[in-house]
TrEMBL record:
Function (record text): Catalyzes the ATP-dependent transfer of a sulfur to tRNA to produce 4-thiouridine in position 8 of tRNAs, which functions as a near-UV photosensor. Also catalyzes the transfer of sulfur to the sulfur carrier protein ThiS, forming ThiS-thiocarboxylate. This is a step in the synthesis of thiazole, in the thiamine biosynthesis pathway. The sulfur is donated as persulfide by IscS.
Domain THUMP: 76-182
GO cellular component labels: cytosol
Matches recorded under Pfam families: ThiI, ThiI_fer, THUMP
Name under which the protein is recorded: Probable tRNA sulfurtransferase
Keyword Iron attached: no
Organism: Paenibacillus albidus
UniProt cross-references to SUPFAM superfamilies, sorted A to Z: Adenine nucleotide alpha hydrolases-like (SSF52402), THUMP domain-like (SSF143437)
Pathway: Cofactor biosynthesis; thiamine diphosphate biosynthesis
């Protein structure tokens, strides 16, 4: 098998337009019985969602595999989208032939011509006879197919142990599948099979990566963003919508909760505690996000924090900030280097958006010297004595606007997203 690196997790295809079908293999969920069936069903549902824009594509399912018959739909584009489906370990572009010796040889030859292996390449034919009534056995077939192929390609030599090119042939009753390429998928757990979490999505580099990492572990993610209109602009909001859209490529659809944060934020000014401003803001975000999580049935909060990155991400800061909520606080990037996070954000496709220079609500009120070592008792006291603080938090939750984001923006028919009661559908 030739293996393509997942050079970009999203988007880019390879020259695999020869394919009649894509064969999708599940990752090792290391699960048995009922759970495995549930996981496979979830992957299938996700795949269904991803192929909706390709009406001629037809799905088939078998233990451990999904087939996508292309019927003329673009192979590379579909493979590019499907390798992003969590739980898919690999994809092979397949040529389909009749289950006759003549057709198998002729289609194999055509595939070899397309792949045009370099002079001196090593090669092997690997036949699996699933349909036992086929007149030739697997070992015999290896010879029957490889002999004419080698005659046509004198530059090829056979290597049974570790060939550069392994032509796999699966003989079934109705058709025979012929393939030799392997495109790496993202793997992970199928979406939503490990529950739901609320992601605090800022406009930065880190939080979209934290969201993607969570989704890859099987978490369904809803996003919550805090904005401070009029201090933050419409462009800043649009940037977050666009980032959520990048995430929706991996989920089909994503809910984004937009929280008006101006009143909460300005309530901290004039306290004479400027160095605690960020600590108080972060805690307020967690408190509001926790209420939204409860409302939406999410069991954890996710942030893009990484240890030591900024003043609010020292261990003492994380300690004091994290105590604002009882919910598990997941920080997928906590031990990662910034350069690795940047690398991942490029692969996911969020980097170019993240570096756009629009202001975040937190950068507006950043004090000269934010504390790296906040005092929990003082913070508790400030919050307890701030007039009307509880009401401010409750009002922010009440005034939160929720939108559904899909990968397709305005171009897609609304029927792709089932409208839920009380949720505004917006096509940005
Ligand atoms: P990012 O690149 O995600 O913005 P950062 O390194 O800039 O991260 P901070 O700005 O300190 O870090 O934010 C830490 C985390 O707090 C973010 O990763 C995000 O989860 C959350 N956060 C910050 N600002 C917002 C916001 N306006 N709305 C929602 N979440 C936010
Ligand atoms: Mg930020």
């Amino acid at each position: 098998m030739r293996t393509h690196e997942p050079d970009a997790v999203a988007g880019r295809g390879t020259s695999i337009e020869y394919a009649d079908m894509l064969l999708l293999r599940f990752g090792e969920f290391t699960l048995k019985g009922k759970n495995r069936a549930r996981f496979e069903k979830t992957v299938l549902r996700h795949v269904k969602e991803m192929i909706k824009p390709y009406p001629r594509a037809v799905l088939g399912k078998e233990f451990g595999r999904i087939y996508v018959q292309l019927n003329g739909e673009p192979a590379a584009e579909l493979a590019g989208a499907l390798k992003n489906v969590f739980g898919i370990a690999s994809i092979s572009p397949v040529k389909v032939s009749q289950s006759t010796l003549e057709d198998i040889i002729s289609v194999s030859r055509r595939l070899l011509e397309i792949l045009s292996p370099a002079e001196g390449s090593t090669f092997k034919v690997n036949v699996r006879r699933v349909w036992k009534e086929f007149p030739h056995g697997s070992i015999e077939m290896n010879k029957l197919v490889s002999t004419p192929l080698l005659q046509g390609y004198p530059g090829l030599t056979v290597d049974m142990r570790s060939p550069q090119l392994e032509l796999k042939i699966e003989i079934r009753h109705d058709h025979t599948y012929i393939f030799c390429e392997n495109i790496a998928g993202v793997g992970g757990f199928p979406l939503g099979t490990n529950g739901k979490a609320m992601l605090l999505l800022s406009g930065g580099i880190d939080s979209p990566v934290a969201g993607w990492s969570s989704m890859r572990r099987g978490l369904e993610v809803e996003c919550v963003h805090f904005y401070s209109y009029p201090y933050t602009s419409e462009l800043a909001r649009q940037k977050v919508v666009d980032l959520a859209r990048v995430l929706s490529r991996y989920a089909g659809v994503i809910k984004l909760h937009l929280v008006p944060f101006t009143e909460v934020q300005t309530s901290f000014t004039g306290l004479g505690q400027d160095n605690l401003m960020i600590t108080l803001m972060r805690r307020a975000m967690l408190k509001i996000a926790a209420r939204l999580a409860e409302r939406e049935g999410a069991l954890a909060l996710v942030t893009g924090e990484s240890l030591g990155q900024v003043a609010s991400q020292t261990l003492p800061s994380m300690n004091v900030i994290g105590r604002a909520t009882q919910l598990p606080l997941l920080r997928p990037l906590v031990m990662m280097d910034k350069s690795d996070i940047v690398e991942l954000s490029k692969k996911i496709g969020s980097y170019e958006l993240s570096i756009l220079p629009y202001e975040d609500c937190c950068t507006l009120f950043v004090p000269k010297s934010p504390t790296t070592n906040p005092n929990l008792r003082i913070v508790d006291k400030i919050e307890a004595t701030l007039p009307g603080y509880e009401d401010l938090l409750a009002a922010a939750v009440d005034r939160t606007e929720t939108v559904q984001i899909t990968p397709y923006g305005g171009e897609k028919p609304a029927d792709l997203v089932p409208a839920e009661a009380g949720i505004k559908e917006e096509w940005f």
